[in-house]
Amino acid sequence: MRPRSLAPAVAVVGAGWAGLAGALALAEAGLRVTLFETAPQAGGRARSVTLATPLGPIAIDNGQHLIVGAYRQTLGLLARLGAGPLLRRHRLHLVSDRGLSLRAAPLPAPLHLGWGLLRAGGLDWSERMAMLRMMRALRRARWQVRPNETVAALLERLAQPSGPVSKLWAPLCVGALNTLPAHACARSFAAVLRDTLGAARHDCDFVAPDAPLGALLPDRGLARLRALGATIRLRSTLRELRRSPSGWRLDAAEEPFAALLLALPPWSAAAPLGRLGVDTSVLQRFVPEPIATAWALWPAGEAPRLARWSMLEEDPQRARFGQWVFDRGIIGPARVAGVVVSVASRIADQPAQALADGIAAQLRDAFGGPAPSAIRIVTERRATFRCTPGLQRPACDHFGREAPGLWLAGDYTWPDYPATIEAAVRSGQRAAAGMLASLAAAPQPQHGHATDVPA
Ligand SMILES: Cc1cc2nc3c(=O)[nH]c(=O)nc-3n(C[C@H](O)[C@H](O)[C@H](O)COP(=O)(O)OP(=O)(O)OC[C@H]3O[C@@H](n4cnc5c(N)ncnc54)[C@H](O)[C@@H]3O)c2cc1C
Questions:
Q1: How many CA atoms, within 13 angstroms, populate the side-chain half-sphere of residue 88?
Q2: Cα 46 to ligand 1 centroid, rounded to whole Å
Q3: For residues 5 and 81, which has the higher predicted lDDT (pLDDT)?
Q4: Which of 73-82, 112-121, 394-403, 405-414 has the lowest mean pLDDT?
Q5: C-alpha 224 – ligand 1 centre gap (Å)
Q6: Which residues contact 277 (CB under 8 A, 6 or more apart)?
């Protein structure tokens, strides 16, 4: 086997879940990896934060993240890194404050869902049959929808009554795509249904971590990378990149690299790529959409009886902003629940106090008293891209012709998925595989330096 000192040196820029997954695959294949990240910590849009609260500091996430059984690459990676024991799997049981109850039956697919839909609480017989017919129609169509169809148009075409739309399909769409049904991409919605409710029984499991996100991939990923000899450069921002005869050069580094994996969100990748002189119009079509997460805190032992998770009826006109609530259990001195406000561009002009009051009222209506002793709101202004119809996802080698050796990863590069952790992890692993194959096909350098390439 080739000693690592003679292996090509490659750079990964961005230590979100895409960059970490890609860097791990490259380092495990024996390459000399340098990982650059502008922030002081890894994790990107799925990272841990420490909140200062009246009950003391609380180690939690930048936003409530739902991981489901269909996240096979993510769960496989976490298992390989030893994070498996931190994850608890729960059979799908969706409940809402409007009385919906949908539980996957302990039967093989698709009976688990068929039986679950037929017995769903909070819907009448004709509504349950309509949902079953929609899932059957989508499966028969191999989860293909009409070109440029929105989720609202799909639901109408498949004759969904208002009950299932408002109680299930719309909250699922808003939660999974962070886009309202009237604007959301039906193709991505169908892909989500295909890989969760429409797939094997365990694919729609909810997977709840017993720890903040940082303890899953970011901390373990960095530790593994260091053990593999990778160089980690936090607080290191890429602004300029160029190709030189000795390889890729980044303003953030002295040394040249044989190849480069850009694992940045589209709005961050566009600037350095634009300066390189390539056409970045494919990146500029992605529009960021915020998500706000309201962390509600009670002194441990003083919280009302919370559902493990529940959909909430949203009605921004009545200051009901949250769509989902997740009980995170006891963290340090507090009992913590996360209320998710997706498509938060709609509440951008709400004062924080009005938001907190609305969330407290929603929690009281859903679970009774006592009121939380504090609510901390974390708003990620660029949480996801708006998942609208016809949004072209660039391939990982999109710039390969103009800029050989440059690879793209990131949630926005995975075809047909909305912005998710799984899309990020898959994209990082796919780009790493592409880079490894192309380096293996290239002539081997005689020494440990990067391959010379024409400028
Ligand atoms: C509040 C919230 C809730 C969410 N909920 C869910 C959920 O329930 N389920 C789910 O699956 N997904 C959810 N997501 C989406 C998920 O977090 C993202 O899809 C995923 O984390 C994206 O990973 P990424 O690696 O593609 O990008 P990022 O996480 O954005 O990683 C890019 C990294 O590049 C760094 N960077 C940027 N510019 C530079 C530069 N010039 N130089 C060096 N480094 C740079 C950034 O700091 C960042 O660390 C949520 C996101 C948010 C914010």
A1: 8
A2: 6
A3: 81
A4: 112-121
A5: 20
A6: 402
What pLDDT shows up at residue 2? Answer: 66
User: Do the Cβ atoms of 224 and 205 come closer than 8 Å?
Assistant: no
Instruction: Give the residue whose CA is nearest to atom 15 of ligand 1.
Output: 420
The verdict on the CB of residue 66 being under 6 Å from ligand 1 is: yes
Q: Phi-psi bin for 405: left (phi > 0), alpha (psi -120 to 50), beta?
A: left
Tell me the CB-side half-sphere exposure of residue 9, using CA atoms within 13 A: 20
The span from the CA of 115 to the CA of 137, in Å, is 17
Cβ of residue 63 lying under 6 Å from some atom of ligand 1? yes
Return the percentage of the chain with pLDDT > 70, whole number: 96
- CA angle 286–169–360, rounded 5-degree value: 85
Q: Could you tell me the distance, in angstroms and rounded to a whole number, from the CA of residue 221 to the centre of ligand 1?
A: 15
Is the model's pTM score more than 0.90?
yes
Residue 358 CA to residue 342 CA, distance in Å, equals 15
Q: What spacing in Å lies between the alpha carbon of 48 and ligand 1's midpoint?
A: 12
- Take atom 31 of ligand 1 and give the residue whose Cα is closest: 16
The rounded Cα 152 to chain-centroid distance in angstroms is 23
Residue 270 burial by Cβ neighbours in a 10 Å radius (0-12, 13-18, 19+): middle
Query: Going from the N-terminus, what domains does the chain have, and what CATH number goes with each?
Result: 4-45+217-286+395-441 (3.50.50.60), 48-67+288-385 (3.90.660.20), 92-204 (1.10.3110)
Rounded to the nearest 10 degrees, how much is the dihedral formed by the CA atoms of 205, 413, 213, 329? -40
In this predicted structure, the answer to whether residue 177 has a pLDDT above a threshold of 60 is yes
